Amino acid sequence: MKTIAVLTSGGDAPGMNAAIRAVVRAGLDKGLKVMGIHRGYSGLINGEIFEMDRHSVSDIIHRGGTILKTARCPEFKKLEVRQKAAQILKVYGIDGLVVIGGDGSFTGAKLLSELGVKTIGIPGTIDNDLAYTEYTLGFDTALNTVLDAINKLRDTSTSHERISIVEVMGRNCGDIALFSGLAGGAESVIVPEKDYSLDEVCKTILDGKQKGKLHNLIIVAEGVGGANELALKIEDITGIETRATILGHIQRGGSPSAFDRILASRMGARAVELLMEEKTGRVIGIKGGDIIDLDTNEALAIPRKFDEKLYEIAKSLSY
């Protein structure tokens, strides 16, 4: 192993830059040549490859987004496109590739490994939707971004004695909604993993009003969606002014939390170690505080389990 490369693919997430930094500096520390690839797989097939040094990753550990940029590349599903990518890596003398991204990015890396490219994946997605790892890079930061928004909305909701519905990201995974709802003291958390009753939600609101509650907070995961429509229905039933806020891509930005920076650093360093060990087709995660690695296919085949216990705790504390 003499030369490795790193790219970021799919949606951006806070902590990606910290992971890039770790890969570059850990690689250089082990005497490797490290290359950066702009714009994910799209940049790879277009040859957007350059050499990186320690200065290339100076002052980026605290920055959100990704200095390598990212892009979707649907054409990477084609065998001939992946063969071109493998050939380009060979031309540049790249022996191993670190891919920072989500499940789609990992699938691309696994397919590349079948063409002889040594690949290691680092989970970078705010959605926290990869079952093999307890946390993905960016989730903790996005969670705190949502919590900050909730705190601000609570102030104005209390002033106007209204209901606030907040729609958060996460695709079909309700973790951002569940964790932020619990941490933010929401009256209701609506996630795609659990059915919900509009009548039950409204009853909770009306019961709270009778007890003197001045405001209500409802968190809705984007996998459920329809925050604006839900607001209209709840206002019609309860007679209480209701406003919806869709946080959107603000959740992907911002300086990564200490947790995400440390996790990214540990994962980036481990990725380099695995490549030095000639490992390939593997992804890195965290379990019980330990950094782990699994075969990519095995990892992606693990069914995601919704945290029923945490959901019940959130419900029991909301009344």
From TrEMBL:
Entries under Pfam families matching the protein: PFK (PF00365)
Catalytic activity field: beta-D-fructose 6-phosphate + ATP = beta-D-fructose 1,6-bisphosphate + ADP + H(+)
GO MF, one example: 6-phosphofructokinase activity
Positions bound to ADP: 21-25, 154, 185-187, 211, 213-215
Keyword Cytoplasm belongs to the record: yes
Domain Phosphofructokinase, chain residue ranges per copy: 4-275
Residues annotated as binding substrate: 125-127, 162, 169-171, 222, 243, 249-252
Activation/inhibition comment: Allosterically activated by ADP and other diphosphonucleosides, and allosterically inhibited by phosphoenolpyruvate.
Active-site residues, Swiss-Prot/TrEMBL: 127 (proton acceptor)
Sorted UniProt keywords: Allosteric enzyme, ATP-binding, Cytoplasm, Glycolysis, Kinase, Magnesium, Metal-binding, Nucleotide-binding, Transferase
Keyword Membrane set for record: no
Subunit annotation: Homotetramer.
Function: Catalyzes the phosphorylation of D-fructose 6-phosphate to fructose 1,6-bisphosphate by ATP, the first committing step of glycolysis.
Protein name in UniProt: ATP-dependent 6-phosphofructokinase
Gene source species: Clostridium rhizosphaerae
